[in-house]
Amino acid sequence: xxxxxxxxxxxxxEDTQIFQxxxxxxxDGKLVAIPxxxxxxxxxxxxxxxxxxxxxxxxxxxxxxxxxxxxxxxEAAQTHAFFDDRALKLAEAFWPGPLTLVLPKLPTSxxxxxxxxxxxxxxxxxxxxxxxxxxxxxTGLPLAAPSANLSGRISGTTAExxxxxxxxxxxxxxxxxxxxxGVESTIVSxxxxxxxxxxxxxxxxxxxxxxxxxxxxxxxxDDSAPMAPGMLTSHYAPNSHIRLxxxxxxxxxxxxxxxxxxxxxxxxxxKLVPLSDSEDLTEAAARLFTALRQxxxxxxxxxxxxxxxxxxxxxxxxxxxxxxxAPRD
Length: 329
Prior knowledge:
Number of strands: 15
Strand order of the largest sheet: 1-8-2-3-7-4-6-5-9-10-11
Largest sheet: 11 strands, mixed
Number of helices: 9
Keywords: ATP-binding, Cytoplasm, Nucleotide-binding, Nucleotidyltransferase, Transferase, tRNA processing
EC number: 2.7.7.87
Oligomer: single chain
């Protein structure tokens, strides 16, 4: 594995030899960990079934769980999916950014059946990350890039997180520091008559609804044939067991805090890990996965989490926490 330390403000990406080397690696079907504005992605050529199989193998991910394909522009996305007026509105309003659209896949799209898990739909995103877009543009490839972590575990928001989980599977990792959004993209399906929120994420539901002019239907969990990533009941889980909406804390529990007023017993908690002392939901979302890793006390450990409001990005935070706390096989 080779590491490229990249300044997020660097605009001369294409002029470096390592950038071209990474393009060559992706074109050859190898795996590269790439930072986006949401989390780090485990990227591979979405048109190469063998490369996508490498993603599933590295993550230990169920092959019925579809992958998001990243492209550099709306124009590129339109070569893979049918965009109705609703899809065009959302793409023009929020791309590049933390929004994934699930749309009818065009029969001419070269994205592999494995990447879409055999479905007739495709999940597409134009990320804000300049390096991801630059790699898509230079290679001419859609890049399948689920979160760079072991399946079901905590998503990686730093290069160190990714290295700890996946270093033996990577040809390169691009390190540009901690990701600014910190939770995965919001996923909206526009396949049926009603727009459906498949996964809350880094773009608030309210912002999507304001552009569409209608409410989103909320999809439930799906453990057999999910339409998009992040729909499995148990996901984003640390080794420790999690208790939500904690109003007290035991001495053997780590406590993830929100706000400066702490619950009873916090002075005796095994560990205190703050999400946001100022109750800022944007800050809390950016810190969520790091906080879960820091609070993890091991297989027999326990984590208590203070209540988090459900509005704005709080919906995504609570979704991730609920899946992290769900019973596991």
